[in-house]
Amino acid sequence: MFGLKTEASFDGAHFLADYYGKCENLHGHRWRVVAYARQESLQTEGTMRDMVLDFGVFKKALRSIVGEFDHMFLVEEGTLKQATVDALEGEGFTLKMLPFRTTAENLARYFYGRLEQEGIPVAQVDVYETPLNCASYFGE
Ligand SMILES: Nc1nc2c(c(=O)[nH]1)N=C([C@H](O)[C@H](O)COP(=O)(O)OP(=O)(O)OP(=O)(O)O)CN2
Ligand SMILES: [Zn+2]
Fold first, then answer.
1. Which end is more exposed in the chain, N or C (fewer Cβ atoms within 10 Å of the end residue's Cβ)?
2. In 3-state terms, what secondary structure has residue 7?
3. CB-based burial of residue 75 (10 Å sphere; 0-12 exposed, 13-18 middle, 19+ buried)?
4. What element of type H or E holds 9?
5. Cα(6)–Cα(14) distance, rounded to whole angstroms?
6. Rounded Cα distance, 96 and 77, in Å
7. Are 37 and 58 in contact (CB under 8 A)?
8. Mutation choice for ligand 1 from 31, 126, 130, 137, CB with most ligand atoms inside 8 A
9. CATH 3.30.479.10 matches 2-137
10. Closest CA to 74 of 48, 100, 92, 41
11. Would you say the CB of residue 129 lies under 6 angstroms from ligand 1?
12. What Å distances lie between residue 67 and 9, 18, 134, CA to CA?
């Protein structure tokens, strides 16, 4: 079995609806996203011969997906009044509406799915909210 690892990060803001504690308030993180690819055998021909896949392909795929989150206000759908969304957008702020609570666990699962869709043989995604706290998703 062979493995690759790459990482990317993004800055953003969020709050956790239904959370009892300081994270219910709007705050920011520099989220760090570490992705692992795993494959039984190496490619046998072409530019990626003897590679799982090119580091550059893996890195670009992750950075492109994670880049969609950079400097955004991540909002779980249904947790802000429409008038609030309209007011923030009216001020020129960019909101990224997501169909899930913006926990590190859900973000890890989301990035895993997006990498899978890109054809990356992803095996694990870790999302660090702080340097010491990390959630992982390993697939089904
Ligand atoms: N399992 C999870 N627990 C928590 C998550 C999460 O995504 N998954 N998220 C949060 C909040 O987003 C919060 O911002 C994190 O707070 P905390 O761990 O307290 O981080 P701090 O760096 O602010 O901690 P200090 O020790 O106070 O510096 C909460 N839990
Ligand atoms: Zn947080």
1. C
2. strand
3. buried
4. strand 2-14
5. 25
6. 9
7. yes
8. 130
9. yes
10. 100
11. yes
12. 8, 27, 19
User: Facing residues of 34 across strands?
Assistant: 7, 126
Q: Give the separation between CA 113 and CA 111, rounded to whole angstroms.
A: 5
Ligand 1 site-directed mutation target among 15, 20, 23, most atoms within 8 Å of CB:
23
Distance 55 CA to ligand 2 centre (A): 30
CB 13 within 8 A of CB 27: yes
Amino acid, single-letter form, for residue 57: V
Q: Kindly give the confidence (pLDDT) of every residue in the chain, 140 residues in length, as a single tens digit, with 9 standing for 90 and above.
A: 999 999 999 999 999 999 999 999 999 999 999 999 999 999 999 999 999 999 999 999 999 999 999 999 999 999 999 999 999 999 999 999 999 999 999 999 999 999 999 999 999 999 999 999 999 999 87
Ligand nearest to the CA of 22: 1
Q: Where are the domains of the chain?
A: 2-137
